[in-house]
Design goal:
277 residues, Rossmann fold, 12 helices
Length: 277
């Protein structure tokens, strides 16, 4: 499959299949963050398919050209989770190993908490459990690390600033966080497509209008991979994540930055394959 649909929206998806697929082979769903797309997982997917795992990497809501609805409520977390359900249904997959990085990590945490019957395991990359993140915003250094989110709430101005001079400000923010220039250029080019950056920022703008009780306790086997040099998530938020998992849990602290799918694909794939085995 290369697309799937939900509520009149059409999502692009990279369907990475093993060379010799077996009936009933395990499936992993790979959810990207901002301002990535499904290609962020290309190296991870190659390792998974070599081990016999099918890997589905969608371009999520706001990133797929056919799935950029207007209004911030369309990007609330329940909608993002329902998109993953639609992907699994379209692929005929009853249960998957769910992987999420950055904003995709928030969706992965929420999906695992709300749909444990469809989650074989969770591998969260960089992003703490949302409840741990909220606590950090109230009581610790997380508020400073997340201060940019407030700026994204302003209508239109962030798009103008980030995309001025060919996206120079967005490119600079990506490279400062550790992403190499070639990948930064690729993601900036995608964000310059009509409506793409507004769609990506809508995830942040939907935070004040998201309802549904937040993300509860996760009750599936979970591995949480973090980068020691990640500028976006405070150590206290990372440590508090353990409190929100009532299942086998492993935290892997890597000596790297925020961009785990791109920079540490072998570690990401190994975590997923440990759950598969």
């Amino acid at each position: 499959m290369d697309t799937f649909a939900r509520d009149g929206l059409r999502f692009d998806v990279r369907d990475h299949r093993p060379a010799e697929p077996a009936a009933g082979a395990p499936v992993a769903v790979l959810l990207h963050g901002f301002p990535q797309d499904g290609s962020a997982y290309d190296a991870v997917a190659a390792l998974l398919t070599a081990a016999g795992v099918r890997a589905l990497a969608p371009d999520q809501r706001g990133y797929s050209p056919g799935a950029r609805p207007a209004g911030r409520r369309a990007y609330a977390v329940p909608e993002l989770v329902a998109d993953v359900v639609a992907l699994l249904d379209a692929a005929g997959v009853p249960r998957a190993h769910v992987v999420g990085h950055d904003w995709g990590g928030s969706v992965a945490w929420a999906f695992a908490a709300r749909h444990p019957e469809r989650t074989a395991s969770l591998t969260a990359l960089s992003t703490p459990h949302p409840a741990a993140l909220r606590a950090g915003l109230r009581h610790g250094a997380q508020a400073l690390r997340s201060s940019y989110v407030l700026g994204f709430q302003v209508p239109l101005l962030p798009e103008r600033v980030l995309l001025a001079r060919g996206g120079a400000a967005l490119r600079r923010s990506l490279t400062r966080s550790g992403l190499e220039p070639a990948l930064a250029d690729r993601y900036v080019a995608r964000m310059r497509e009509p409506g793409a950056l507004a769609g990506g920022l809508a995830w942040y703008r939907a935070l004040p209008v998201t309802t549904g009780g937040g993300t509860g306790t996760v009750r599936v086997p979970t591995t949480y991979l973090t980068g020691r040099r990640d500028p976006f998530f405070a150590p206290a938020s990372v440590a508090a994540t353990r409190e929100h998992v009532a299942a086998p849990y492993t935290h892997v602290d890597l000596g790297t930055d925020h961009w785990l799918p791109e920079h540490r694909p072998a570690d990401v794939a190994a975590a997923v394959l440990a759950h598969v085995r």
